[in-house]
Inverse folding.
């Protein structure tokens, strides 16, 4: 990629799946693979490997094709099973492989022992891409990319390897070639378009015209609320968005009911008979909206690969609707015909016959796609709300389709280049709803060229000022004391804690929790200053090295975390109501070794993976402790903001203030705030290693 991928976490999180482990297949042990060479580490270090990064070595070898059929979009669906001739035969269960539904994979012919290096390379190059749609004990089912893709007819054994993980495993998006190609194409298209081609809407987006003025808030038209419990800032944001002709930004700090507000906004738009497109940067963000719209019985359709959708929303997916709607019958018969033909290919050994059948399938596929397009068109037209990821909305299903309004959820995470395919040709207005992050004000000046790093939210704010923005100000998650710092630093002290949450303590949980110095305190800081809790550099252990440099860990700090978790559990707090988050992958590995066994149910995550989540108690492990005051990822306010705004009743920060404070002005203020407001404690090594 010629440009950096800002969506890729610097420190790739470990998946929370308990059964996760690196593939035990021979692929990951091949001596030719440098990452799999026997480690030169002393055996004591190798004896306790931490969770490997998820992308390392995920592959299944020795597969064969068991069945093939046609799926939505004429896609070829292949079922792969272990070759019974290998590994004792019997066509039995697959060894544990860690591959999950939604993972992007490559399927290819497996090189045999005798193949030379160049031939191996060529074979790898012929790999067909696809997405895993089902994982069973005995089979993995993959939907192959591209109309003509198939893995048949090569005879040999097949292997499957993961190219990127399903975004539904975490809340983070991983790199995907198609996404970036589409973003790039859109950027060039927009840059080449002449001004005469711009609609008035695009002119506002580019800052060539100002948005149509909206009456002052107290003069906005009252609405008939579907949910009257909305608070004033939510109601005001909705009224403002409804009154804006071109664009409205809704800035929603953590827990302020952004999704709540968006749902009401969509329902209000439907009341006015508007045709609405709703997008988010990730599948999870879109699915979340589908789930919350579903009880309102809204006719809606969710575009996107069914393998990547939450099971609860699959019934609204295009894939399912094209099978079950009235318009679907006409597509079904041709789908069956293609499946029959595909089955007949496997029965014949005659090459000429095979080619002839392939030719027929090709023709059928063309017809299938035409019929399917008609079916999809009528479904999209008949749905008042269409939901897709920003990337998905730029796909062929919505080509040339216009909507009255586009709502973009989590717009502060959506790169402008992602948003543009969605809005470029739409003569519509856009409502974007921001997420938990602080605004990076002034980053994009007026008239700046479109870039792949900026967000549409930032750009519009910089172009038109805060008149086009409304902020949600009442938050329903955090105790006042937990909210105080992020509110002052990032939300101009405008956040207000709702009555119901502002003084909630762990002792008020709906189960018995003993009153202790921890459970009665919403904000605790374990300051490890003094040099005894120094960080370690990881990266030499198998699979731990990541492209952006070595990961850091801090074993003694992990022990402080364990001590604190133990104290909360001893007081009665359930481990499943707690989370430990850290920005460093290596530290996550350490924490899992230490906490998973004694506290089953506790959630461990990278900060990125914890976005959008909440827990009653959250412990943050900051890791960095060095004489050079190097703070790495901690310098990113956005990440820290995510970490410090996840807890409801108890936040415990573990870190070395002497290292972290000098890292930036923001970090200095945070450390000072903790010193002044948190229940401050100084651990000694002897406290945390007692009894070990
Ligand atoms: N007006 C309201 N009255 C009472 N509870 C509310 C109100 N608005 C939102 N909530 C509650 O606040 C919580 C957070 O709401 P929601 O998930 O919509 O927030 P969000 O801003 O999207 O969250 P996040 O910061 O995780 O993205 C939910 O439990 C929701 O029911």
């Amino acid at each position: 990629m010629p440009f950096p991928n800002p969506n890729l976490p610097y420190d790739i999180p470990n998946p929370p799946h308990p059964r996760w482990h690196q593939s035990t297949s021979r692929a990951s042990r091949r001596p030719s693979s440098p990452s799999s060479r026997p480690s030169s580490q002393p055996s004591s270090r190798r004896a306790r490997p931490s969770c490997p990064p998820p992308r390392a070595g995920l592959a299944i070898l020795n597969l064969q094709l068991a069945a093939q059929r046609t799926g939505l979009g004429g896609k070829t669906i292949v079922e792969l099973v272990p070759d019974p001739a290998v590994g004792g035969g019997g066509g039995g269960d697959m060894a544990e492989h860690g591959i999950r539904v939604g993972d992007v994979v490559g399927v290819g012919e497996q090189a045999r022992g005798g193949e030379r290096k160049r031939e191996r390379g060529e074979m790898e190059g012929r790999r067909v891409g696809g997405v895993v749609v089902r994982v069973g004990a005995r089979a993995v089912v993959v939907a192959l990319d591209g109309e003509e893709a198939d893995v048949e007819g090569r005879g040999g054994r097949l292997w499957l390897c993961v190219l990127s993980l399903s975004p539904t495993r975490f809340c983070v998006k991983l790199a995907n070639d198609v996404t970036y190609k589409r973003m790039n194409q859109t950027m060039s298209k927009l840059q080449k378009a002449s001004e005469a081609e711009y609609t008035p809407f695009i002119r506002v987006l580019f800052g060539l015209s100002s948005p149509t003025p909206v009456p002052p808030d107290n003069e906005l038209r009252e609405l008939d609320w579907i949910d009257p419990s909305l608070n004033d800032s939510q109601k005001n944001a909705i009224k403002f968005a409804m009154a804006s002709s071109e664009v409205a930004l809704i800035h929603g700090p953590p827990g302020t009911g952004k999704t709540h507000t968006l749902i009401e906004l969509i329902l209000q738009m439907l009341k006015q008979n508007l045709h609405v497109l709703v997008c988010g940067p990730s599948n999870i963000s879109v699915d979340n909206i589908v789930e919350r719209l579903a009880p309102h019985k809204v006719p809606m359709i969710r575009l996107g690969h069914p393998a990547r959708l939450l099971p609860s929303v699959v019934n609204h997916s295009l894939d399912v609707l094209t099978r079950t709607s009235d318009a679907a019958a006409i597509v079904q018969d041709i789908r069956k015909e293609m499946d029959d033909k595909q089955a007949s290919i496997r029965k014949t050994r005659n090459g000429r016959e095979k080619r002839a059948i392939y030719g027929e399938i090709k023709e059928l596929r063309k017809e299938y796609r035409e019929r399917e397009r008609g079916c999809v068109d009528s479904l999209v037209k008949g749905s008042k709300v269409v939901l897709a990821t920003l990337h998905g909305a730029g796909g062929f299903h919505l080509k040339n389709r216009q909507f009255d309004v586009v709502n973009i959820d989590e717009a502060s995470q959506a790169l402008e280049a992602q948003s543009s395919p969605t809005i470029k040709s739409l003569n519509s207005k856009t409502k974007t709803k921001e997420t938990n992050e602080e605004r990076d004000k002034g980053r994009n000046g007026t008239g700046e060229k479109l870039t792949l790093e900026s967000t549409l939210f930032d750009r519009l704010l910089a172009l038109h000022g805060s008149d086009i923005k409304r902020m949600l100000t009442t938050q329903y998650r955090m105790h006042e004391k937990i909210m105080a710092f992020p509110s002052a630093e990032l939300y101009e002290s405008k956040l207000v804690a709702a009555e119901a949450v502002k003084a909630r303590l762990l002792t008020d949980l709906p189960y018995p929790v003993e009153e202790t110095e921890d459970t009665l305190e919403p904000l605790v800081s374990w300051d490890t200053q003094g040099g005894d809790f120094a960080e370690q550099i990881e990266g030499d252990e198998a699979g731990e090295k990541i492209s952006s440099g070595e990961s850091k860990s801090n074993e003694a700090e992990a022990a402080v975390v364990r001590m604190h978790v133990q104290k909360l559990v001893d007081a009665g707090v359930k481990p499943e109501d707690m989370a430990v988050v850290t920005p460093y992958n290596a530290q996550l590995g350490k924490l899992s070794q230490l906490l998973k066994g004694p506290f089953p149910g506790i959630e461990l995550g990278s900060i990125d993976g914890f976005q959008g989540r909440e827990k009653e108690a959250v412990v943050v492990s900051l890791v960095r402790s060095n004489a050079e005051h190097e703070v790495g990822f901690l310098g990113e306010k956005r990440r820290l903001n995510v970490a410090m705004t996840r807890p409801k009743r108890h936040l415990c920060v573990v870190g070395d203030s002497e290292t972290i404070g000098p890292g930036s002005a923001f970090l200095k203020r945070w450390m000072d705030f903790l010193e002044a407001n948190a229940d401050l404690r100084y651990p000694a090594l002897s406290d945390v290693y007692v009894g070990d």
